[in-house]
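Recall that a protein's primary structure is simply its ordered list of amino acids. Everything else, from secondary elements to tertiary packing, is in principle encoded there. The following example makes that idea concrete.
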Amino acid sequence: YQQYKKNKSNCGRRPLVLPEEQSEYIQRKVVQGWTPDVIVGRAAFPISCSARTIYRMFKKGLFDSSDLPMKGKRKPNGHQERRGKQTFRRSIHEREKDYSQFSNEFGHLEGDTIVGLKHKSAVITLVERLSKVIITLKPCGRQAIDIEKKLNQWFESVPKNLFKSITFDCGKEFSNWKQISNV
């Protein structure tokens, strides 16, 4: 049984160990603000592993992840949000059919949200297409009802004919777009 355990411990893939000069180089560049992707792509000498492997080394604790630009916070590979899809949504190309002068006309907004730390709060950004003016609004929360309330409140403070169309991305927070578009 002991021989079996010894042989079994020799099975499997060996963990990758970087040479000392490469690991020092990686740590030095990360402290300077470089990401592992940039380190592998622009290294002064060839690095013997990929950027994904370097990220895994950060995750295992071989390097200090607090020096990374994103402080080691990354979504798991391949993660996509599958909850709360919008059922009735309009394509971005439909508004070009509705407004023939869409690209040359003032008053067409595009909306998105920026989610805050710990996913508790959000900021609504509205960009006017022609002038590239950015309007930012701070709702109470980041649910669809909070976004709807804040947008309705803002629309009441601007002249009715100032904006002709507003297009949101397909996020869950804009699922009440029909109520907003009827204002």
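The domain at 94-181 is CATH 3.30.420.10 (Nucleotidyltransferase; domain 5). Helices lie at 2-9, 20-31, 36-42, 51-60, 94-98, 144-157, 177-181.
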